[in-house]
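Supplementary Text 2. Reproducibility record for the structural model of the 215-residue chain.

All settings were left at their defaults, and a single model was retained for analysis rather than an ensemble. We include the record here because the model underlies the residue-level annotations in Supplementary Table 4.
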Amino acid sequence: MIGEYEQQLIEQIEALQPAKRHSLNAPPHPNPNKDKAMAKRGEQPMRTAIWRLYGVDLTRIDGISTGAAQVVLTEAGLDLSAFPDEHHFVSWLRLSPKMAFSAGKPLSKTRNAMAASRMAAILRMCALTLRHSPTALGACYRRTARRKSGAVAVFALARKLAVLIYRMLRYGQDYVDEGAERYEDRFCQRRLCSLKMSARSLGFTLVPEAEANAA
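Retained model, structure tokens:
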């Protein structure tokens, strides 16, 4: 029965595809392991159908499976122009931090139910699958979890995935994984730059330990 429903979904998606992409195949996936896993599960026809419809491949984003791409399609639709920017889209998904204060007074943390909670839930699941991933998004999850908690890391990464999806669907911006090592290097450089600025504001200059010892 699941196979029959999947076939009906593909047929409905094909009916919405632009004519110029009807006979095109999706470009090769940059992650061979993920591509092999999708082929093993029989998800390539659905991946190709969604790519022909959108013109972009959401599964290129680490953590986003074919099933997650289907949820994005059913919840967000084809046109994201209703959201002026990514911040409105994230707010609609209820993935933006709630500011529970107004004029210095605490407010109720009850959230408005008028949002795509199904899509937010699937993005949280996608974020959770990246906790051991050797990718930049995986490194982002682990760094946030070390500083705060696993729950905060899931929420923050789900928000990041939503931003990447918005940029891909609205502007056609591709996603290329830089790897966990490159991500950690960039984070260290940003941290070092911040420390230098703080030291300079106090009238000091940071000197590398090797140079200090040589002097």
